[in-house]
Amino acid sequence: MAKSLVIKQLRAARDFLFAQKYRFDQGLQFLVFVNFALLILTASDKLKVIFGLDRISEVAALMVVLGFVGTWAFGLFLDKIVHSQQSTESETLKRSLLWQRNFAELEGLKREVRQLRAEIRKR
């Protein structure tokens, strides 16, 4: 009984971690904006004066942490609200010549099965 409970907990932990990794992977496109912001922040000496900072390293460190959290949050948004995976698969199916051929072949097979059923019913 205890072994079964441990296995269930391990599976739940595995599924949870995989879901978080999936959300992070979905949100990776957000890192482009974070990288651009970090580039501007570290390259501009004028920002030190605007923010009143002696060193920009504190802000850069904060931006890195916020970048990872923002990436995960953006992935969560795409996963839960936008349903990004389903949209991606749908668009891929529309554009894939191989899948279009497969669906055409499937429709042909369905048509033949209907014809055979109709012939069998006539007899």
Give the N-to-C terminal Cα separation: 59 Å
Low-pLDDT ranges: none
| Average pLDDT number | 81
Calculate Rg over CA atoms. 26 Å
How many domains would you count in the coordinates? 2
The computed structural class is mainly alpha
Approximately how much helix is present in the residues? over 70%
What's the story with the biggest beta sheet? Answer: none
The count of helical stretches stands at 6
Secondary-structure element string: HHHHHH
Beta strand count? 0
Overall geometric form: elongated
Strand content: under 5%
Features:
123 residues, mainly alpha, 2 domains, 0% strand, elongated
Descriptive notes:
The structure is a single chain. The chain starts with a helix and ends with a helix. The chain folds into 2 domains: 1-82, no CATH class; 84-123. It has 123 residues and is an all-alpha fold. It has 6 helices and no strands. The mean pLDDT is 81. The chain has helices spanning 2-26, 31-43, 46-51, 57-82, 84-95, 97-122. The longest helix has 26 residues, at 57-82. Helix content is 88%, strand content 0%.
